[in-house]
C-alpha cells in the first residue's frame, strides 16, 4: 500500500507492507525504513513500537486531514491523493503578488484604504483580529488598490483574498 | 457565606471558580455568549444565562446584562475572574449600586490603582520604590514624544487602563515613536475604552516578580510570597513559577513588606497582586497592581496550600483572614505553563476551532486548570488561553522535569497549541539554570521552529489509524451496535 | 543513579513509578501478562516484556522470568511496587543474587518482618508496644483453637505471610473457629504459598494508624507522619487520610518515635510503613511492617511534599537522605479513595470488563493515580484497584468537600466501581466528624444500596443519546469523513 | 416516541415528545413529567437541563445496553424491546431452585463436590475467584448433585449453570 502524506508543505511517499503478523508493519518513508509493531487501544489511541522504541500516539480525524499527536507535538497530516481541492493555504503574506490574505481565521476590524488608493509596499491595508490579537495586513508591493473584497466584522480565513493590488502604476 | 454567586467570566477561570464554589456548597450561575453555549464553564455550572451575541461588548463586557442576570437568578455576589470587567471600576460600582457584593476590591481602589500614574503616586507616598516615568497620562503623541526625549530612549509606552500587554509598546528610538503611540492608543481604546497612554523608562531585560496579597475588610493584610513571570512573548506571560530563582530570603522579605505597604497604602481589600520589576543588581521597582485574581495564582496555591478563590469568597462575605503572615509557608516549587491556542508552525497565530480530542496529563504533582472539553469549538472572539498546566515538586529541577513529562502527555487535537514551544523552553539549559529574564524568548528562542523529528512517526500513525479504522472487529460495539428502533422499527413508536 | 529499571508490577502503581522515573530521566521496562498487552503501564513504559500467561504464577509472580527480563533489557534495578512479589524475600534474594538491586529493603529484613511472630519479637525487644497474641505460627487448626480459648474470643486469625486482608478472619466464637482457620489457610496458601496462621487478640473497633518511614543505607531513619486507614471493607482499606483525625501532637510524636525505633530495630532500609492499632484511650500497638511502598503513599506525598518513589530510587542507588526529621513538615490535609472495580448494586462483586469511557477529575488539589485507559479490558485475574483518587486542601473539611466533587466528576463506564459508595461515605456526618474506626462500614453502611435518585435522569440520557446518535449533522467528521483509499480506491495502491 | 427502559430489574415506560425547539423535550416516565433541554457536546457527553436543573451526563454504548453516568453514579440502562434474549441475569443465588450460577464473571478454583453427592442447604459446592476475591457457591437447598457443568480454571459468568441439584431426595 502506498500513500503520499503531507505535513506542513512537505510531501513524502510512504510505502507500507505487512510483515509476519498482522500487527507488524514495514514502512518506507522517503529514504528511511522502519519496522513498526502497533496496537490499537481505542479509536483514537495507538501504541507504536518503531524500530524498538515505544510511543503513544493519538489521532483525530478533522476536516482538513488527521491531527496527530506524538511526544507532545501535533501534526496535521494530509493524504495528497485525498485533498479534493488543493487550497493554497498561505502562511503570512500572500504568495501571489498583489493578493492579500489573512494568516489566520480572524475578524476584520479596520480597513485602512479605499479602492483606487495608491499604496506603498509595507503600508497597512487591513487590520484583522483573532483571539484578541490584532494583525495588520500590509501591501506586498507598491501599487493601487484594485479591489476590496471584505467589510468590517466579516469573518475571514487564510486563502480568502481580502484586497487586490495592481502593481503597474509606474506612469502615474 | 453566599448561597449563590454569578461568575462574570468564561473559560478556565470560570471553571476554576465554579470548582471551589461547589466544594464550599455555593451554587454557581454561569453567563455565556452565543459562541459559548457548549463551553466548559456553562456545562459545569449549576445554572447558566445567555448574555447575548459573541462580541464581548454584547455579552461578557455588558454590565447591564450581567447585573440583570445576577438579579434574575438571585445571585448574592459576582465574581469577575480576570480580564473582561475584572478591573473595571464602573462594573464594581454597578454591583455595589445593585446591592450585589463584587468579589474584589472596592470600586475606588480599582479606579485608583487602574490609573497607572495615580498608582505611582500612591506607591511613592508609601515609600514603595517606583520606576522613573511620567506621572500624567495623555492622548497627545507629541507630548509623549517630548517626555521620551527627556527620559531618553528606550521607553515603554503603556495604556493607563491597560493590562496583559494590551496597549503596550517598547520604543527604541524617536523614529518609531509616533506610530507606536498611535497603534497602542487604538489598541487600548478598543480593549479598555480608554486610549490614554503614559511612559516609563524601559529597563533592559529585568525580571518580572510579583507578590500575591490578601487583605480582609478588617485591616489584616498578608502576602503569599512571590511569583516570577519573566518568560513572556508579545508581552504576554507564558510561564510563571514560584519561588523565583532570583530570590534571596532578605530580598523576599523586603519585597513582601513593600507589597503589604502597597496594599495598605491603597486601602486594598480582597486578593491582589503587586507587580515589580527586579533588575540584575537586586533593585526592585513597583510596576502596577493587578486588582483581581491573577492568571498565575495556582503556583501560589500549590506552594502555600491556600485556596485563593476560597479566600476571595471568605473576604467578600466579610470574614476575617484565619491566618497571619507567620502562618503562611512556602514549600516546594511550582511552575505554570499557559496553554495558548496558537500555531507554533505558523508564527504563533491564533488557532481557534474544534477540540477533537482532549486528554489531560495526570499523576503526582500535576494540576491542569482547563476551560475546554472535547466537542467544544474554541471561539475566535476571546482570549487564546485554553488551560493552565501546573506542576509542583520538592525542587525547581523536579518541577521542571515533571512539567516536561506533563506537557509531553497533554493531548489537544483539532486546534494548535504552544505546547511544543513550551516543551523546548522547559528543556533548555537556560531555563534549567533559572536565567529567566524578560528578554528570555528573544534571546534564546527568537527563531524557534518545531522540530521535524517526529514527522515520520506521525505519517506512520496516519496509516495505522487508517488500517484499524476499516478493520474494526465486528464485535466492536461502536460500529456494530445492537439494532435500535431508529434503524429497525421505523416510526411505529411515535 | 540507575539509567534503566524494570518494574515488576502492573496497574496504577507501575504507572505511578514510571512517571517518577521519566521525570528523573530513568528508562523504564514494563512487564506484562497476556491479559495486559494493552494495559496502561505497558503503554507508558519505554520498553515492555511479555512474561507469560495471565495467571499470576506464570507472569507477575514468576521470579525466573522477571530476572531474565531484567537481564535481557539491561535493567539496573527492579522496583517491585506493592503486592505480587513486593514482600517476597526469595524475590529480593534472587535480585541480589543476579546483581540487580532490589528497590526495597534487604531480603533478610523482608523475611524477618514478613514473619509476623518474629516481627513481634523484634518490636518487643525495641520496646515498641505490641498487641497480645501468639508468637508462633502453625498450620494446625486445633492448636489455633486452643490458643484462642486461652486468649478469649474474639480473636483475629492471620496468615503469617499475609497482607491486604488475605488469609485473615475475625472469629467471634469457637463454633466458627475451625472453618475460619481452614479457609484462611487455603487463601494464604494460594496467595502467598504459605498457609501458616497465627492469632491476635481482636480489638473492637480500633483505629488503624500507620507511619511512613524512610531509611537510607547510611543509618539515617526518618518518619513522614501518619496515615489513618480505618475505613475498611472486607479487611481492605478503601479510604485513607492524613493527618489522622485522632492525632494529637504528643501522640504523633510518640508514635513517630516508635516507628523510627521499629525501623532501626529491624535494620530497615528504603521506604516502609509501620502499622499500628490505636484504641480509644490513645494506646497504640504495633501491628505489622509493610516492607514496600504502600498503596496509600500519595496522601503522605501531598502533605509532606516529598516524592516517595524518588526517595526509594535515591536510597536504592546508595544516596543519603537529603533531609532530616526536622526538615519534614506536614501541611494541609489529604484524603485518598481507592477506586475498586466492584459493583455497588450487586454486593460489591468484582466487575472486570472493558473500559468504554474514562474521564478523570481535574482541578486544584486533585490527583488521580490511574492504571486504566479507555479501550482497556480490566482482567479478571488481578486486583480490582483501578485507580486512587487523592484530594488535598488546607483543612480536612475542605479536602472532604473536594473529594466529593472529584468523585462526582469521575467517569468510568463499562465496568462498575465503588464510586457511588465512596460518595455516600464521604458525605456522611460520621465521616465528616472524623469518627473513623475500623468498624465504620459495618456501623454506618451495613445495608447500603445505591440511591435510585438519578434513575430517571439516566433514562432521559438514554433517549437523548439515541436521538443524537441518529441525527448527527452530515458535516460531523466522524460519520462523514473524507473518502479514503480503503473505500474508494480499492487495491490499486498495493 | 415510546421506550421501555430497564435499570437493574425495574422497567419503566418512557414517553418523549418534542416541545417548541428541537433541543427541548418533554418526558413522561411512569407518573412523573420532566421538561428537558439538551445539548450534545460530543458523542458521549451531554448537558441536560431537567426541570431547570443542569447536569452533565456521559453515555457509552456497551454490549448489554448503555452505560450512563449521572452525578457520580452509573447505571446500565437497557431497552426492553431491544433485549434479543432475555437472559436471566442473576444476582447472588439462582432464582431457579436447584441451579447454581456465579454472581460475577469469575474463574472456577475449586470444586468441592462430585456428581451424585448428597448435599445440605448452604453447603459449599464450588469456589470461584475474580480479581483475587474468592466466593463459595453454596447449595440452595438439600439435595443431590445431579450435574456439574464446569471444571477447574474455567471462566464462568452469571447465568451459567455450574451445578444442578435435585431436590427430591426425601426417601434416601
Description of the molecule:
- The complex is a heterotetramer, with two copies of chain A (172 residues) and two copies of chain B (494 residues).
- By secondary structure, chain A is an all-beta fold.
- Chain A has two domains: 2-79, Glycoprotein, Type 4 Pilin (2-Layer Sandwich), CATH 3.30.700; 99-167, RNA polymerase II/Efflux pump adaptor protein, barrel-sandwich hybrid domain (OB fold (Dihydrolipoamide Acetyltransferase, E2P)), CATH 2.40.50.100.
- Helices cover 0% and strands 55% of the residues of chain A.
- Chain A has no helices and 16 strands.
- In chain A, the strands form three sheets. In chain A, strands 1-2-3-4-5-6-7-8 form an eight-stranded antiparallel β-barrel. A four-stranded antiparallel beta sheet of chain A has the order 9-16-14-11, with no helix packed on it. In chain A, strands 13-12-10-15 form a four-stranded antiparallel beta sheet, with no helix packed on it.
- Chain A is elongated and about 70 Å long.
- The model of chain A is unreliable at 85-94 (pLDDT under 50).
- With 494 residues, chain B is an alpha+beta fold.
- Chain B has three domains: 4-103, Rossmann fold (3-Layer(aba) Sandwich), CATH 3.40.50; 132-201, ATP-grasp fold, A domain (Dna Ligase, domain 1); 207-444, D-amino Acid Aminotransferase, Chain A, domain 1, CATH 3.30.470.
- Chain B has 18 helices and 21 strands.
- In chain B, strands 12-11-8-9-10-13-20-18 form an eight-stranded antiparallel beta sheet, with helices on both faces. Chain B has a four-stranded parallel beta sheet with strand order 3-2-1-4, sandwiched between helices.
- In chain B, strand 8 (207-215) and strand 9 form a beta hairpin.
- In chain B, helix 4 (89-97) runs antiparallel to helix 5, helix 7 crosses helix 8 (177-192) and helix 12 (396-408) runs antiparallel to helix 13.
- Chain B is globular, with a radius of gyration of 24 Å.
